[in-house]
């Protein structure tokens, strides 16, 4: 699960925003600006930072805060600002993105996903990534949109092999040889069964990764189909606002 740390002067407000993001499948933590340097130094580094700069004091001290906590390319950072700040807002060089409040939780989640994709490219040393799908090579864990996916041994090996060579078409025989080994005596049906099981675990209405190439075999698509960031999906989700929880999904004014 992706880890996101919220930093803001109003703890109650950032805790509310953090809870909203947890509903999108993220693990969150909250700290005040004066606690940020110590908290990030003593704890495990988050995958992303979200800094609340909706107050004038927070906006004024944003550049210094980012320098202290290391809000650089190593930890992608999203800054939250208010609508009244937009006309005069000058983003500090170190931030990766900003979001104007009020905004929907799904929009913040979508922006963070995009940042994490750029900062964890396909073929990295510790991860293989394609859209919302991430393989942690060190722990042999698979995540989809931040959620752990439990795979059987051969399902993991098959996914790892396909994702290591995106857009490459493999015959069933080639997959048998590469994943099961040359001494495996099972037929091509074995591949079909494992592909079906794998799809049932990593694909849904919003995600499609493995493509069947008719009369040939399978390939892993380097550009997965994902509709979660579309306006229609964002519009139906919860709203992030600088205020208190409303208890429903309507915007807080």
Gist of the model:
The protein has 253 residues and is of the alpha/beta class.
Word description of this protein:
With 253 residues, the chain is of the alpha/beta class. It has helices spanning 11-22, 33-42, 56-60, 62-69, 105-119, 153-164, 172-180, 189-202, 231-235, and strands at 3-7, 27-31, 48-52, 77-82, 97-101, 103-104, 127-130, 133-136, 141-144, 147-149, 170-171, 208-213, 217-225, 239-240. The longest helix has 15 residues, at 105-119. Strand 8 (133-136) and strand 9 (141-144) form a beta hairpin. Mean pLDDT is 77; it is low at 226-237 and 244-253. The chain has a five-stranded parallel sheet. The chain has a four-stranded antiparallel sheet with strand order 7-8-9-10, covered by helices on one side. The protein has two domains: 3-120 and 230-240, Rossmann fold (3-Layer(aba) Sandwich), CATH 3.40.50; 132-225, Orthogonal Bundle (Arc Repressor Mutant, subunit A).
Query: What is the overall silhouette?
Result: elongated
Biggest sheet details: 5 strands, parallel
Distance between the termini: 31 Å
Order of helices and strands: EHEHEHHEEEHEEEEHEHHEEHE
Strand order of the largest sheet: 2-1-3-4-5
